[in-house]
Every structure is written in C-alpha cells, then in structure tokens.
Specification:
Elements lengths: L2 H19 L5 H8 L4 H26 L5 H21 L3 H28 L4 H25 L5 H6 L4 H17 L17 H4 L11 H12 L1 H17 L5 H5 L1 H42 L6 H9 L1 H54 L9 H4 L1 H17 L10
Helix pairs in contact: 1-5, 1-6, 1-8, 2-3, 2-11, 3-5, 3-15, 4-5, 4-8, 6-13, 10-15, 10-17, 11-15, 11-17, 13-14, 13-15, 13-17
C-alpha cells in the first residue's frame, strides 16, 4: 500500500468517526434539554444504532457486495446521510427527530462495514496495516468531542441556549464532505458473485449458530449479549449524567475514553498472552462494574477525578472484551464460519444486546427521574454496576479455561 492510498484511507477513517463522534455522545444531553425527551425517548433514539446493526447486513450483502463498488455506495450513503443530519438539525420535537435518525443509522452502520471493506482491499497485510489506518478513526472521534467543548456547545450556557443542535449541522457538513471524497477513493469492485444465491442466514451470520453447540462458546455468546446492558447505560446516559451534575464540557472529557482505547489496544497483546483469554474477559467485565461504582461516588467538584477515572477505564472495558472476543470468535469459527461467526457476534452485541440494554437503561433512568428535574444518578449507576459484576462472576464460574493465542 503506497503513501497516497494510506493517506486517503486515513482521511476516510478520520471523517467516518468524526461524523459519529460529533453527535452521538451529546445526543443524550441534547434530547432532554432541547426537545424535552424522557428516558424512554432517549432509549428509542440510541436503539437506532441496534436497528442499524441488524438491518445494515442487508444493504451490504444484497447491494454493495454484489453489484456496486464499495466506495461509490459509501459516497451515496454519506451524501444521503448529510440530508438526514440536516433534518435532525431542523427538528423541533422528538416525533420529527426519530424517523430521520432511524433512517440515518441504518445507512451509517452500513458505512462502517464499507470503510473496512475499502481499507482491507487495498492492503497486502491487513493484520499489520489496518491498525495504523483505523487509529485515525479514533482520532476523528476525539477531534469531534474536543471541538464541541472548544466551541462551548456543551457548556451549561451552551446547553441551555440549545447550541448542541449545531452538532447535527456539523455532522451534516462532514458527511457531505466524506460523501464527495469517497468517489476519489481507490476502486473497490464487488467481491461476491451476483449470480450466487444469498440467504438471510448468511447475511446475519446465522450459519455460525452451529458453534453454540460447544459449551464454552455458548457461554461466551450469552455473556456478550448480557454485558451490552451495562455498556448501553454508558453510551446512552454518561454524557447526560455529566451534563446534569454540572461537569464542564462533558463532550471533551468523554474523549478520555477514546485516548484510553488507543493505549489499552497497545497493551492488549501483552495482557492477553500473559494472562489468557478468560482472565482478560473477566477483567473487562469487572472494569465495567468498577467504572459505575466510581460514577456513584464521583461529583463535579473535589471528586471529579473519580468520574474521569471511570471514563478512562473505557479502554479496558471495550478493548479487553470486544477485541478479545473477536479474536476468540475468529479462532473458534475456523475457515468454514469465520465471516458468519463475526456477523453473529455483531448481531448479538450491537443488535440484540444493545437493543435490550438501551431499553432497560431508559426505563431505569425514568424510574429515578426527579419531579423538579434531573435524576438520582447515585442509584441509577448501581444497576449496571451490579449487573456487570453478576455477569463477570457467572462467566468466571461457568467458562472453562482454554488456551487461545493472540492474533491481530
């Protein structure tokens, strides 16, 4: 891969995640403060990610992989996405907001697969080359959050004035830029035979269900779904929580989690090889419980360090579980079910698990809403903390230890 293509792919990744990071984190603050949404409506909004994860394989499997170049579909989806983001910017209530967000997320979740496809097709050794390109995606997410805080859109004054509405305008402009830029990317023709029969089971990775006959993989599969419940609390309500308790510039502070992702991604191979798959997964689950315990006792004043530490644990929470899980799935599936197995785990986590998690998080947050505004967050965070701890203990008891080699 020459330097020109590497630069193109890096810019593509930066913009791809700049767009997502530019509105996703602060939407939990924007909806209740600007559109008057309750916890249930916030849950509906965030669950569009799950519906996108469930429906996007049909776009990729039925269209992008069979008939059109990936970079062209990527460009079209982002240009259409720019229009959806503009409609979100203009929405005055949740009823006028949600339909456009749902359509947008089905398209956006499809682009996540497309940017990977475009990248992998240009690489001779993806295991070594992809991480260098993918890190620009994390930097794009960090840049978006930092810019929001630099412009004070997420300050107490900015929130009250409705400046977070501008995040959707920023995402619309960025999406339009990436849409046009995508047509300059290296040609990535369809890889699948258009005459080959496509089944729903293949698109959703259901061919790999046979792997669930093995006890260890079944336990890991169930744990993957269950751990997405506490994960959903973080995605859906962490930004709202920080904003409500008076933490300045929550979007910028949330980017600590992305810096943490980069650091712990580098540490993961050492930890994985030193302590093994089972202990790595248990540490990740325990980190979720510890993070929410820190949220219970932290505040915007002297104990703000507890909140920042909780955010910084994101690298362990996410990398140690999800990346380790992808490696484990890849090895257990073998050549026969490699792609199907990864699709199945994605469906289980970002689809089913997160969908359940967003719903539960929204209901619990509504239960502990205060009549004068705000929430009893000290109680709310106990639920995902306890849930993650129970999942970790069950996994530790039920999963039989096995030796798995780290392969990127």
């Amino acid at each position: 891969m020459n330097s020109k293509i590497r630069t193109q792919l890096s810019v593509m990744m930066f913009l791809e995640f700049f767009i997502w990071g530019g509105w996703f984190v602060t939407m939990g603050i924007y909806l209740p403060n600007s559109l008057g949404s309750d916890g249930a409506e916030i849950a509906f909004a965030y669950s569009t990610q799950s519906w996108g994860a469930i429906l996007s394989p049909f776009i990729i499997g039925l269209i992008a992989d069979r008939y059109f170049n990936a970079e062209r579909i990527l460009g079209i989806l982002h240009l259409l996405g720019a229009g959806m983001m503009w409609m979100l910017y203009c929405a005055d209530d949740f009823a006028g907001f949600y339909p456009y967000l749902l359509v947008y997320m089905v398209m956006y979740m499809s682009t996540l697969a497309l940017v990977n496809s475009v990248s992998f097709r240009q690489m001779k050794d993806p295991a070594k080359e992809f991480s260098f390109v993918r890190v620009f995606g994390t930097l794009g997410w960090i840049a978006a959050g930092s810019l929001i805080s630099y412009l004070n859109w997420d300050s107490q004054e900015g929130i009250s004035e409705g400046f977070l509405r501008n995040t959707f305008l920023m995402a619309a402009i960025s999406s339009a830029i990436l849409g046009v830029f995508s047509f300059t990317l290296p040609k990535t023709p369809p890889s699948a035979d258009s005459n080959q029969k496509v089944t729903i089971s293949k698109l959703l990775g259901l061919d790999a269900l046979t792997l669930l006959k093995e006890r260890n993989f079944l336990i890991f599969f169930i744990a993957s779904i269950l751990i997405c419940v506490p994960l959903a609390f973080y995605y859906q309500h962490a930004g709202q929580f920080l904003g409500e308790i008076g933490v300045d510039n929550p979007a910028g502070k949330m980017t600590i989690g992305q810096w943490s992702e980069i650091i712990f991604m580098l540490l993961l191979p050492f930890f994985f090889n030193r302590f093994g798959f089972k202990k790595t997964i248990i540490v990740a689950m325990a980190a979720w419980a510890f993070r929410y315990a820190l949220f219970v006792y932290g505040n915007a004043g002297e104990l703000s360090v507890l909140l920042l530490t909780g955010i910084a644990l994101h690298g362990i929470c996410y990398d140690f579980f999800f990346v380790s899980g992808q490696i484990y799935t890849n090895i257990k599936a073998g050549k026969a079910y490699k792609s199907s197995a990864q699709g199945l785990i994605t469906l289980a986590t970002y689809g089913i698990g997160m969908l359940i998690g967003f719903y539960i998080a929204g209901r619990i947050t509504d239960i502990f809403a205060l009549s004068e505004g705000g929430h009893t967050w000290e109680t709310i965070w106990l639920y995902p903390a306890g849930f993650a701890l129970v999942v970790a203990l069950l996994f530790a008891v039920l999963f039989k230890n096995e030796k798995i080699a780290y392969k990127s």
